[in-house]
Amino acid sequence: MIKHMALPHLLLVNLGTPDAPTPESVRRFLGEFLSDPDVIDFPQWFWQPILRGIILRTRPAKVAEAYESIWTPEGSPLRVSTERIVARLRAEADGRFTVSAAYRYGQPSIDSENERLHREGVTRVVVVPLFPQRTSATTGTAFRRAGEVAGRIGRAPVIERVIPATDPGYIQAQADRFFEAIAGQPEPDHIVISYHGIPKRYDRNERRSYSSDCCHTTTALLEAIRWPVERSTLTFQSKFGPEKWLTPATDAVLESLPTRGVKRVAVITPGFVTDGLETIEEIGDRGRASFMDAGGEHFVRVAAVDDHPAFLESLARLAVA
Hints:
The chain has 321 residues and is of the alpha/beta class. The protein contains twelve helices and eight strands. The longest helix has 18 residues, at 136-153.
């Protein structure tokens, strides 16, 4: 009989979320997030005074207001969705693996979850960041932190696995979400496929692995939904700071589409497997307003893959591969 501790443990790592939609909670979250050198790689002697003296004094109240607009009775949408994925995987694991979630920023942290697993005698931990496109600010920082914790507690190194950018289950799940979103709606004139942006410098230093993954996902998705490339635009959102980021910018594209005769648009965000601030508020609220104010007539935001069965099966395969 296989002992529980001998089973592989799938540790899903999502970005994280404030504990509450309050300035104090957002300040703690942003302080941890923006202090990560994989996210902001400026020298700390230069960056920390800006972060502590300006950003964490001015941004938390505004960001907290945005979080409050999407908060649910169950809590943060990102956390609720992540926990739903874990619950579904546990129900379908069928004795093949165990599973839990951790957050790169916030609780339960990668540190606390790895320490818990170590105390319980789990020796085979498969870390899967919930990001299908690779970059140091997402997949890289999750693996780095998990490796550091494993070394500190004296456990064997974690097993690092990524969701392939063109994984069939992930692509099928996103395609199904698209068809669900437009069912009974007027057909879009155009589709915007929006990914979280990163500085161009980061992408260049990483041999353009991130922008390449975004292109590969977009190509696979358009093929899955049988949508013509000329009626789609790949974009990048959530720019932060003065550096040049990957373009075109999602907000600028949404504002410009009505001037090109596009009155009906659907926005898909394949880089986010769970919905949160960047999809619900930035795209669903602000993006919609920008498009409609510029003369658009119909706007559809396509939901994240979340706990779609095809995506869950892809995650399960990574646990036992």
